TrEMBL record, chain A:
Pfam (any one): Sigma70_r4
SUPFAM superfamilies: Sigma3 and sigma4 domains of RNA polymerase sigma factors
UniProt name for this protein: RNA polymerase sigma-70 region 4 domain-containing protein
UniProt domain RNA polymerase sigma-70 region: residue ranges: 95-138
Organism: Streptomyces polyasparticus
Top-rank lineage group of the source organism: Bacteria
UniProtKB/TrEMBL annotation, chain B:
Listed transmembrane segments: 46-64
Record-given protein name: Uncharacterized protein
Keyword Membrane on entry: yes
Species whose genome carries this gene: Streptomyces polyasparticus
Keyword Transmembrane: yes
Alphabetical UniProt keywords: Membrane, Transmembrane, Transmembrane helix
Domain of life: Bacteria
Amino acid sequence: MSERQTVQLVRRARDFESFVAGAGGRLLHAATLLTAEPADANPRAQRLLTAALSRTYAAWDRLHGEDPYTYARQQLAYRFLLLSWRLREGRGGVLGMLSPQERLILVLRVHEGVAEEQTAALLGLPAERVRTLCFRAMSLVLDGEPGPLRLTGAETVRGVARVRP
Amino acid sequence: MSDRRENEVRRLLGTAGAPTVPAELYEDVVRRGSRLLRRRVRVRRLMWWAAVLGFLAFVVWVSVTDPFVPPPAEVTPPLERW
């Protein structure tokens, strides 16, 4: 192996390590909210994070200026979507009463501040649907019930149209 | 109204207490990440070899069987004015 390659490998390892040191805690928090586990007993969230970060490690040289945090978060969301049929029932945590999809939307939109359009693209849903689900999830978390059915403008219009054709 | 509620939810999610990242997680990530990389390199190398071998086989086949030369006509043209 040439000296240049070794230097590159060392730099790569250092960069990745500082990335994990900086972002690992926040990502693990998000993962723990997704799996609806208590903060001190979160094996599923740790596995999810390990999978997402190892893919980020493998893709490190191909990111080409893309934010590694965004990439890792996207991987986390994808892996969670794949697993969510098994993680259906939460094990406590703040979001235990929500469905996996609602948890994902709430964590991405509110905890991570991802824009509505990007969340919608990530989940393959229309933005309207994401807004409705996010509203529902917030009502469930804050009030313990899905909330009144006056949601967004478009939803209301559609609801009225169905009641009074 | 929605902003206030969003802040409330954000605060609630924050109070859950941030979990600590276990020390062995980093090593686990690097080990699995390197394995993924190695596998990807191996697959790419294998595909290159397959492409090269396929091309060589094609060249040999072409040079042996001459498949692009039109076959000799099976019908003799009519004989006129000789």
